[in-house]
Amino acid sequence: MGALTDKLTDGAFGLGWAGVKKLPEPVAATLGRVIADRVWKRRGKSVLRLEANLARVVPGAGPERLRELSRAGMRSYMRYWMESFRLPAMNKERFRREVEMRDEHVLLDGMAAGRGVIIALPHLANWDLAGAWVTSHHGIAFTTVAERLKPESLYDRFVAYRESLGMEVLPHSGGAAFGTLARRLRSGGLVCLVADRDLSASGVEVDFFGSTARMPAGPALLAQQTGALLVPATLWYEDSPMMRGHFHPPVEVPERGTRTEKTAAMTQAVADAFAAGIAEHPEDWHMLQRLWLEDLEPREPGASPSAEREPRPSGDRPEPSSSPSPSADRREGAE
């Protein structure tokens, strides 16, 4: 049954990339809204989890407002998919016209200084579109990390898709990602990591909308070890085809404290930037999974933190991994 499910999943994504990009854009957009509304009306686990997460982001919202937000959120989520299926065939000139990033000088000045730049993003709007904008509009290639998906053929599809947009994609597994990212940064390169959810043993506890969540240590550790700038960025959709974003001020490495203390302070600063962007555009935050610690399923005594991971909801968005393995950090430091 597992092999059949994997084959069907891979086939569905293959059909999406092959078919949706051939549709006229208005038809694809309408299709995305129709699918989103049908999924939303079923009130499945993913939609209910999204509403529960949004209730923390918009604490004063009543049931009707949360339903409105979750419906808009599912439409935003399907807009991501429709865009992503079409991106490889899209005229690159459109990225310049339809993506606008506030304070992009933060990125450009950092790259010009040759220090290397780490962009940390939450699950807002379309990370892939932002990446395509960086590579096509500014001619800046970058490196990211992707979690290995099942089946392997699906992972290969996502790697090929992102590489076609100008990204270098490293596998999360194997422990070598951190060292490679550090080398890219030391040579003045750009690294982009989705960084608003990490349930691994290395996750850093942060205050996020008044409750405790875990976020990855990787971005802060890379900044400390390489001297690269750590820049949080947030994205949101307009009603028009445009997507906008904001490069927040760089997160500085504290002058004092242990590495653990510095990492905690820097990760909290990233979380604060994410919270500001998500609060302004909650409908574009595609968090369909558990995030806050008190929402996680209790672990059995002696179980590893990975046991807290819930199954990926059906149709959830495969993402670049939130951070490289921290064990690779120790190996890189020993080299």
What are the defining features of this structure?
7-stranded mixed beta sheet, two-stranded antiparallel sheet, disordered C terminus, about 50% helix, about 325 residues
Would you kindly provide a written description of the structure presented here, covering whatever features stand out?
The protein has 335 residues and is α/β, with parallel strands linked by helices. Helix content is 48%, strand content 14%. It has 12 helices and 9 strands. The protein has helices at 2-19, 25-42, 45-57, 63-86, 93-98, 105-112, 127-137, 152-164, 177-186, 218-226, 259-280, 326-334, and strands at residues 99-102, 117-121, 142-146, 167-171, 190-194, 204-208, 211-215, 229-237, 243-247. The protein has a 7-stranded mixed beta sheet with strand order 1-9-8-2-5-3-4, with helices on both faces. Strands 6-7 form a two-stranded antiparallel ribbon. α8 (152-164) links the parallel β3 and β4 (167-171). α3 (45-57) crosses α4 and α9 crosses α12. Residues 303-322 and 325-335 have low confidence and may be disordered.
Specify the overall morphology: globular
- Low-confidence parts lasting 5 or more residues at pLDDT below 50? 303-322, 325-335
Q: Biggest sheet: strands, sense, closure?
A: 7 strands, mixed
- What is the terminal-to-terminal distance? 44 Å
Structural class: alpha/beta
* Radius of gyration, whole Å: 19 Å
